[in-house]
Amino acid sequence: MSTTRQHPPGDLGREPEGAGTGADAGVGAASSGPVERQWRTLSLRGIGGIVPTARDFARQALHDWDWLPATSADGRAAAEDVLLVVSELVTNACLHADGPEEMRIGCTAKVLRVEVVDAGAGQPAPRTPHRGGRPGGHGMFIVQRLCLDWGVQRVAGRAGKTVWAELAAPA
Description:
There is one protein chain. This protein is α+β, with helices and mostly antiparallel strands. It is built from three helices and six strands, in the order E-E-H-H-E-E-H-E-E. It has a six-stranded antiparallel sheet, covered by helices on one side. The radius of gyration is 15 Å and the shape is globular. The chain starts with 27 loop residues before the first strand and ends with a strand.
């Protein structure tokens, strides 16, 4: 896990200015750089049913990017892992950061990246020691176990943060 790296292993980085934004729920692809990436952005400000809305948005992106319907057990597991990570990151923002402001999901041929933006000052971390079987406190532990890497990005001079996680594309 890295919480300081600006460009983690999948090298998707932040969404380029002007790409994947707008009223169309943020469908976009960046043209610069060696990695072709596709981004989707969903505003979560002031909506009800935030977690199911975020999962539905991610599920539609997975359909559009041909992760779903999956043709193998590994493909189905990879898609379910993405949906679980979306749920955990959005729920964490709801519980500990006064709610998420935005979710972005980006995809290359090898890596899928989920980003949740919130205005909170806290630092997410898996609880240690992890206590299986006890309610609560499992979200970031689950994210850590399912993802290639995850971390937190902050912008100097601005409140809040972006919590990101990267998962491997199905083989």
